[in-house]
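Translate sequence into structure tokens.
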Amino acid sequence: MLTLTLIRHAKSSWSRPDLGDHDRTLNERGLRAAPQMGRWLAAHGWAGENGPGLPDHWLSSTATRTRLTAEIMAGECGLPLTALHFDRRLYLADSRELLHFVRETPVCRHLVLFSHNPGIEDFANELLETGGDLVFKTSAVACLTLPQDEWQWLDFGTASLRFHTWPAQLEQDA
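Result follows.
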């Protein structure tokens, strides 16, 4: 069995209209949410007897907002930044592109993927065996369990949901 954690980047800033979309950074809310989600994942989402444990492979879009989200969350989980891998193909990828990309993943048991909407949301919902209606707000996380033993066999309609949350949900549950 494999575990796939999908994460949408934290809230981005629109304060610099001179920057292209790929280069937008995080706003104040994003800079608060990314560490909050990283701490929660390390302490609750991935931890414990029933948790899948920390991911052993981290992939992120090269967009500034996504890269920063990944770096902040990895830091909150105690991972060195050298554990992160960045790929331009994840920038605004649709669900089919994400499927093909994940199928290329090297051997690992738990993969985390940082990307963008609508692709990451569509990808999560299409992976779920029951279909899905997950909503990926900024900083949203969905952790999926997959029956496959190798990433190359990943297919739509085969995953089950471990958990799905986002910053406002965590605050509401507190």
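Note: The mean pLDDT is 94.
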